[in-house]
Sequence to fold (714 residues):
Amino acid sequence: MSAPELALVLIGFGRVARRFVRLLDETSDRLAFACRIVGISTRRHGSVVDAAGVDGRRAAAVVEAGQSLDRLDPAPLPRSGLDALRSAADRAAGEAAQGRLVAIESTVLEIERGEPAVSHVKEALEGSMHVVTVNKGPIAFAYRELAALAGRVERMLLFEGVVMDGVPVFNLVRHTLPAVHVTGFRGVLNTTSNYVLSALERGQAFEPALREMQARGIAEADPSLDVDGWDAAAKTAALVNVLMGGAITPHQVQRTGIGGIAAADIRDAAARDRRIRLVASARRQGESVAARVEPEVLDRRDPLAALDDTENAVYLRTDLLGEIGIVQRSGDLTQTAYAVIADLSAIARGLATGVVR
Amino acid sequence: MSAPELALVLIGFGRVARRFVRLLDETSDRLAFACRIVGISTRRHGSVVDAAGVDGRRAAAVVEAGQSLDRLDPAPLPRSGLDALRSAADRAAGEAAQGRLVAIESTVLEIERGEPAVSHVKEALEGSMHVVTVNKGPIAFAYRELAALAGRVERMLLFEGVVMDGVPVFNLVRHTLPAVHVTGFRGVLNTTSNYVLSALERGQAFEPALREMQARGIAEADPSLDVDGWDAAAKTAALVNVLMGGAITPHQVQRTGIGGIAAADIRDAAARDRRIRLVASARRQGESVAARVEPEVLDRRDPLAALDDTENAVYLRTDLLGEIGIVQRSGDLTQTAYAVIADLSAIARGLATGVVR
Fold:
């Protein structure tokens, strides 16, 4: 089995994608595949498509200097994400036909309909690309349809970074729990909310804690997505859709954010040896699934009560193995970027073993 | 890809193996493979080898009625485990050549040298069988040698049940964490010790708590393996050998059991808002690995302090993802039996995709 070379089209080139291109360099000696970037599309910093290969580190430096990627393009053009995908599919048609072209969707979550990310994923699959998305939108809003499309075109749709960064949740169930049914889950999935609640417990104020998460690149660009529970609701919908066979959107998750929690609530809970955490949960209810995100006052014995600061966890309820927890003790950009590498490894393994053709 | 049929030789037919044959029936409609038992070997209840197939449920009933398996054998013979493996290799040579013959080692852990389980695994691999072991011995005492042998004969050596029953630890790292290096770990791995410590906290006595674990089939037949830390040391050696590239045995794990812990120690810890847990850990120390099992007085904030009764967990330290925890919230026979099914699924997947020939 020789090391396959993957051709990559990056849709979105924010902090996660830029950390990814650097991490790819840093870990190249450990990976059983090589990569060539053939396109990068951004909303505000232009785009570049070049089948001969784009220097990822140089592209990151260009964007970080506030310049346009157009300067790296041999024949620059104004392009939307869809345009960039079409152009890459055209110029790397050979790789696409061989199952070696991969679109990486990392644009910002849009919480009304998950667009344009859903359309990006569709376009990529229709262009015979595999898709790795760290954007929650496609999985939270359209997983069933997109997974069916991926099956028809015989390409992989992977998304480990959507929940708990690179810590495996979806791959855990897919690769290590054959024949197990997931019947529900409970988790702390939004890092920013958990950090803010921890800060309130320490007597700090809400706003500075939130700003710190933004400065570290952890809070969403629009922090209301974190504070109002939308980020956790999107992750909940993704887990329900993938692990429990649901077909819901974040709008069907009953949702309460942490905005209404006052320092006094935190103190009252602490006085009773309890902690408030933003809990995401789902359970089967007849034919459907009841999903919710809301602050819960937890007994100290609850495993979710132990999660401080940037720790996340999800406890899956299963039929054969009881409750299994997976815990992420720290979350940062490297871990989200790693999720993309884990997904690319799965594609490379599929190519090397002939599962992907 | 059609569903492969696996032929199974069971070496050891205690509670775990008997629960396994029943679980195989209960889950057959979910599995992408079929199984035929061609041999069962026990220390005290005779043996049966029959290439035409042995009825697993009937065999379990025979043993549970205190009778000998010889009565199920068309031509009964006194046989050791090695004899049964040789006989099965001979009579199911076609399956062995096709990579469809699997030995399942579930004899009792022997803590001096891991024998005869190590020899069973060697014999099975040399007979072109895949091996699934839930006995810790082979992995704790001879992983490197056995893995090399498995590579040479192109057969799989799998052992998910060795640590935390069917909750994935080895498969988690193998299948979902490509390119990640495990640099150390901390865990609570022995259910019986943890249950006894929890009982002491509730004011119960040591001996009745231990007897309860034996009655539930969780404590080892020889409870000193649990109480003296040997079971945890064997699991620690297995984790070091597989995840950290070590080549140690349980005798190289610095080991203190829970036998010396008095009710007063537990009360003292509780008075300082602390808990005592039997902690297994390892970390790199220059070229080697320092591994230990010992009771530790833990701060309440330590994630291991949250583990009650039959809960287990291991927190892996990694280079790219920080610390990742995997938590088992309840452990029973079904979960250990499930580990065998998960490993068989991996073999069947290998066959279906042509990775195993």
